[in-house]
Each structure stands twice: as structure tokens, then as C-alpha cells.
Write a sequence for this structure.
């Protein structure tokens, strides 16, 4: 089976490509995130020739709401059009838990629009919602930092290890389209401030963490819980944050 993984050479794309290749399938890594590398339908038809599955793990190069929306709309419309032409039988897209409850957040809104385009297409699909990755906590803190203080929404999160998301994505991609949404999360809930402090404090990061009711990053309109609505598909055997932290520190200490 030939699988095309569309992304920007980031962490998830690299892990997913390795997962699919290890399973014995042909995998093509397509780097389509940069401004200068956004192919039209004709170019995508050539790229997808012979593919059975397309997995979109792309990330917009900017978190600006309008740019994020333009990026995901354009790429998704073009991918789906090319898939119809080439006979791709499964479109998988990685999205984010909570985007339907955060329409005031430009990134979440863009992902919700992307999902709707996938649902409306005749191409069989699987939408995968994931919570925040352990590995991206510093990026979350940096995006929320003003004057050396990380101003974080009082949200509840249920973070997950990127490796487990990649493995689940691989299994879903190689399986039958669910034509629905699958939600992935780690086993434990944390306040966003607690999550950031647990990961960054041992590294003595300079940011001070403050709770800010007005902070839109990861905030939701409902109850500020950025967690699966009906329980995640990954069960409690998935990696716990404290276990992951110990592994990371052991690796750093040699």
C-alpha cells in the first residue's frame, strides 16, 4: 500500500513516516507547509499517483487566523480534488480536540473548517483529534509569553505523547476509513499552568506562569476544557506525563 504523508517535516510527520515504513508499506513524505511549496491540483495529482491513502498532518506556517484559514482551506480543497482524480480511497487528517468549542481562536476555527471540507467530500475519511503533545509544551508557553510571563488560560488539558499519536495515526491510516472522528488523549488531566510548570520547571525556564481569563490560547467558549468530549480512544495504558518526563531526563543525563 502506498501512503502519502503531507506535512512540514515536523515531529509528527517524521514519526508517522517511520511508523508506516516499519509496517512494511510504501510511504512518501510530502513537504507542503512552506509558502513556496503549495502545489496546485495538477501537481498534487502527480504526487498522489498510485496512492491508496493520504494523511494530512500539515501545520499552517502562521497562527494568524486568516492566514491559517487560507492555508488549510486551500490545501484541503486541492488535496481532495486530486484524490478524487487519482482514486485515493482514504483521507486522514490530524486535527485538534476542542476546536468546535473555540471559534474565537483563529487556529481552532481554521481546523474546524478544514474538517468540514473533509466531511463534505465524497472521499472516505478519518478525522483524528489529538490533545496537546508533551513535546510542544515550550511552544505553548512561548506563544503565551509577554514581558517574561507566560499568560495561560485557566484551561484543563489532557496531553499525550507524540509517539503514541503517530502510532495511532498509522493504524488508522492503514485501516478502513471510519467516516467519523477519533479522539486521542493521554490518561491524565492537568490545569494548563500545572502542565507547563511540570515540564519546564526542571529546566529552569525563565518564564513566570500566570493565569489569565482573557488569554485565548487553548481557551474554549464552554467550560475551558480542551479534552475529548466523549472520552479518548487511547486508554489508560498510554504513557503518563510523569513517566515521559523521567524518560526525557534520563536521556538528557546520559
Amino acid at each position: 500500500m502506498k501512503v502519502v504523508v503531507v506535512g512540514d517535516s515536523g515531529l509528527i510527520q517524521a514519526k508517522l513516516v517511520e511508523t508506516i515504513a516499519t509496517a512494511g508499506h510504501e510511504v512518501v513524505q510530502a513537504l507542503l507547509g512552506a509558502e513556496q511549496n503549495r502545489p496546485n491540483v495538477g501537481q498534487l495529482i502527480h504526487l498522489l499517483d498510485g496512492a491508496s491513502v493520504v494523511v494530512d498532518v500539515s501545520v499552517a506556517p502562521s497562527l494568524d487566523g486568516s492566514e491559517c484559514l487560507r492555508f488549510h482551506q486551500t490545501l484541503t480543497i486541492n488535496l481532495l480534488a486530486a484524490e478524487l482524480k487519482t482514486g485515493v480511497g482514504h483521507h486522514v487528517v490530524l486535527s485538534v480536540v476542542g476546536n468546535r468549542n473555540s471559534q474565537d481562536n483563529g487556529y481552532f476555527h481554521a481546523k474546524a473548517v478544514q474538517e468540514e471540507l473533509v466531511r463534505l467530500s465524497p472521499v472516505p475519511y478519518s478525522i483524528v483529534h489529538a490533545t496537546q503533545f508533551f513535546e510542544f509544551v515550550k511552544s505553548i508557553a512561548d506563544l503565551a509569553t509577554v514581558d517574561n510571563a507566560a499568560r495561560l488560560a485557566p484551561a484543563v488539558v489532557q496531553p499525550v505523547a507524540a509517539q503514541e499519536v503517530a502510532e495511532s495515526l498509522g493504524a488508522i491510516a492503514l485501516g478502513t476509513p471510519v467516516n467519523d472522528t477519533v479522539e486521542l488523549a493521554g490518561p491524565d488531566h492537568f490545569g494548563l499552568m500545572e502542565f507547563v510548570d511540570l515540564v519546564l520547571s526542571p529546566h529552569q525556564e525563565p518564564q513566570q506562569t500566570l493565569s489569565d481569563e482573557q488569554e485565548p490560547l487553548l481557551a474554549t467558549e464552554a467550560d475551558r476544557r480542551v479534552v475529548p468530549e466523549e472520552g479518548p480512544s487511547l486508554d489508560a495504558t498510554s504513557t503518563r506525563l510523569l513517566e515521559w518526563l523521567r524518560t526525557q531526563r534520563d536521556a538528557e543525563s546520559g
In short: Confidence is low (pLDDT under 50) at residues 210-217, 219-224. The first strand starts at residue 2 and ends at 7. Residues 246 and 252 are 10 Å apart (CA to CA). Residues 65-86 form the longest helix (22 residues).
